[in-house]
Automatic annotation (TrEMBL):
<dbReference type="GO" id="GO:0005811">
    <property type="term" value="C:lipid droplet"/>
</dbReference>
<feature type="transmembrane region" description="Helical">
    <location>
        <begin position="47"/>
        <end position="66"/>
    </location>
</feature>
<dbReference type="InterPro" id="IPR020904">
    <property type="entry name" value="Sc_DH/Rdtase_CS"/>
</dbReference>
<keyword id="KW-0560">Oxidoreductase</keyword>
<protein>
    <submittedName>
        <fullName>Epidermal retinol dehydrogenase 2-like isoform X1</fullName>
    </submittedName>
</protein>
<keyword id="KW-1133">Transmembrane helix</keyword>
<comment type="similarity">
    <text>Belongs to the short-chain dehydrogenases/reductases (SDR) family.</text>
</comment>
<dbReference type="Pfam" id="PF00106">
    <property type="entry name" value="adh_short"/>
</dbReference>
<keyword id="KW-0520">NAD</keyword>
<dbReference type="InterPro" id="IPR036291">
    <property type="entry name" value="NAD(P)-bd_dom_sf"/>
</dbReference>
<keyword id="KW-0472">Membrane</keyword>
<dbReference type="InterPro" id="IPR002347">
    <property type="entry name" value="SDR_fam"/>
</dbReference>
<dbReference type="GO" id="GO:0016616">
    <property type="term" value="F:oxidoreductase activity, acting on the CH-OH group of donors, NAD or NADP as acceptor"/>
</dbReference>
<keyword id="KW-0812">Transmembrane</keyword>
């Protein structure tokens, strides 16, 4: 079959890419949305685009070489930070940490006693704290409480979606109501809090959304099917929201998603790690919170903990399935949930 590619610097791009096939057929195989661009101009744009791509990669490599301690951090003095699930674990420590940095803290939790305890601790250390008993899985309660926060404290400028629950059973043993609850607390609640607090951030083109997901938002885990699903959704929400904000000209509203391995808070009480030397030890809550706050102050997009595990995320999509399964077994992921107790039985 005879194909004639017509190249001429005087032709428009659409003409240039017209493929004239023998037997009188002609097909336009690339559309340039009707733009009339000369060949030198198009080549120049391609080169510029390639240069920008390389420049952004180089910039990232240079940034990665600068020690984190030397990088510029933003201040949160006077910011209004709302933490969901502030009555225990990571939420409590994050609330205390941001309080120590001079932010006003709004604490939400369904556990009234735990939430009040966190608020008292912040106030004892000279910080400002306002606690509210809220079930974040209930959209109406979230909107009601958000209105109260606006009246009592002001516009929330940093939102930390942290509240979370886990069932910890094989998929077919998960009762329907627990699957629904897991999705309601771990992901649907993010929609309600975002709807309540994002508009004022967008109006000012300033703010920060922090979603506490999990490493289970990047890797599937057995006996954590419902939890993993909710955490993958939290990572997806973060990703899509980030692009929506940037592409609508609201890049001043920052987003950070946090994906930690198991943390020693009690939520995953009983989880057995095969060999802490060979595999990953449970993370210390203080290490996690220090790194999360650091990522927020540095306005990082993603905080995977421990940091080196990010390599595993890249490998997962490159390695063959059998190799991935082998690594998962070697790390003890196949059995780690078999001794899970969680908060349900312990507390
Ligand atoms: N602990 C881990 O190993 C681990 C690992 C990765 C990610 N995470 C995530 O980190 C976050 C914090 O976990 P944690 O270890 O501190 O757990 P935690 O159980 O100590 O704290 C969770 C808090 O959320 C609150 N909460 C639960 N349901 C709620 C609701 N409907 N409304 C309001 N508050 C509610 C609880 O009362 C509790 O205070 C969770 O999102 C969890 O999924 C935990």
């Amino acid at each position: 079959m005879f194909v004639d590619y017509t190249f001429s610097t005087t032709l428009t791009l659409e003409q240039m890419y017209s493929v004239h096939v023998g037997q009188g057929l002609s097909c336009e195989w690339i559309s340039f949305r009707g733009s009339k661009m000369s060949l030198p101009r198009a080549l120049l744009e391609q080169l510029w685009s390639l240069f920008l791509l390389l420049w952004y990669c180089l910039e990232a490599v240079i940034l990665a070489c600068i020690p984190r301690s030397m990088r510029k951090r933003k201040s949160v003095v006077g910011e209004i930070v709302l933490v969901t699930g502030a009555g225990s674990g990571i939420g409590r420590l994050l609330a205390q940490g941001f309080g120590q940095l001079g932010a006003t803290i709004v604490l939400w939790d369904v556990n009234q006693a735990g939430n009040e305890e966190t608020a008292d601790q912040i106030r004892e250390n000279g910080g400002k704290a306002y606690e509210y008993t809220v079930d974040v899985s209930n959209s109406e309660k979230v909107y009601e409480a958000a209105l109260k926060v606006k009246q009592d404290v002001g516009d929330v400028t940093i939102l930390v979606n942290n509240a979370g629950i886990v069932t910890g059973k094989s998929f077919l043993d998960c009762p329907d109501h627990m699957i629904k609850k897991t999705m309601d607390v771990n992901i649907n609640a993010h929609f309600w809090t975002l709807k309540a607090f994002l508009p004022s951030m967008i109006a000012k083109d300033k703010g920060h959304i922090v979603n506490i997901a999990s490493l289970a938002g990047l890797f599937g885990m057995n006996k954590l099917v419902d939890y993993t699903t909710s955490k993958f959704a939290a990572v997806g929400l973060h990703d899509a929201l980030h692009y929506e904000l940037v592409f609508s000209g609201k890049a001043g509203v920052k987003t950070t998603v946090v994906c930690p391995f198991f943390i020693d808070t009690g939520m995953f009480s009983g989880v057995k790690i095969k060999d802490p030397l060979l595999t990953l030890p449970l993370l210390k809550p203080s290490y996690v919170v220090r790194n999360v706050i650091d990522s927020v102050l540095l306005e990082e997009q993603m905080c995977v903990l421990p940091r080196h595990i990010f390599l595993g995320v890249l490998l997962k999509y490159w390695l063959p399935e059998k190799a991935t399964l082998h690594i998962f077994r070697r790390l003890g992921f196949d059995e780690c949930m078999s001794s899970f107790v969680g908060r349900g039985k312990r507390d």
